[in-house]
């Protein structure tokens, strides 16, 4: 008999509402501030639609984020504990946020109140669609009969090494302001007027990987990254995610589908949009990709 357990994540995993329903997961909302108002980024965008958010962002409205507190996590986890439901929470990278640490503090308190419920948090060391891919594969494992402990161990052992993030951002200023990337790296990238390509390291931090001049070089780098690192025999799924740059995302998808190895394996390529919390740091125009590969 399969072990029954819930999988939770946070809204920085940036999969779309339909995918959330299909995966049967629960999503902890995270907060962002715009025009002096605090909003919760729910996975279904109930407080602010993506169209409204990107319209405001385009007008240079100031946007910021704040860390989810231990108390907020406690409130989100409590209903599962009360119902006696074992759960695994897969968090946003600890290399980019204190989210994971806050969840651990909440779980410590809950375990004293509900000692018979198995509750764990695991650090995805991933972000946005990369975190989404970790969650997607964890749900796939659960569906195939993996236990909570087996799923947790897979995330701990595999995610930081094999979930490859390819990230193209038009401008590094927002990431620098938010402390997500070294200001010196941001200045160099912006001054050279190049397309900065970022990666997420094994420690879950962002790093400037390469600098490309023009879109043609950018897309070539994306194709080369996939064809050189992808491990479709283990997990073939690919996620392309973007910050209000659908045409660029579709172009990348088309280019990938033209590659012989992609034609051979016919992977499930998912398209998703970056939500307000991550987009507040990337700005508009980001185009990104995540897949299971040889190394980050």
Automatic annotation (TrEMBL):
Record-annotated membrane-spanning stretches: none
Recorded GO MF terms: lipid binding
InterPro entries recorded: DegV, DegV_C, DegV_domain_contain
Pfam families attached to this UniProt entry: DegV
PANTHER family in alphabetical order: DEGV DOMAIN-CONTAINING PROTEIN DR_1986-RELATED (PTHR33434), DEGV DOMAIN-CONTAINING PROTEIN YITS (PTHR33434:SF3)
Residues in the signal sequence: none
Record-linked Gene3D superfamilies: 3.30.1180.10, degv family protein (2.20.28.50), Dihydroxyacetone kinase, domain 1 (3.40.50.10440)
Organism per entry: Filifactor alocis (strain ATCC 35896 / CCUG 47790 / D40 B5) (Fusobacterium alocis)
UniProt name for this protein: EDD domain protein, DegV family
Keyword terms, alphabetized: Lipid-binding
Function: May bind long-chain fatty acids, such as palmitate, and may play a role in lipid transport or fatty acid metabolism.
NCBIfam families tied to this protein: DegV
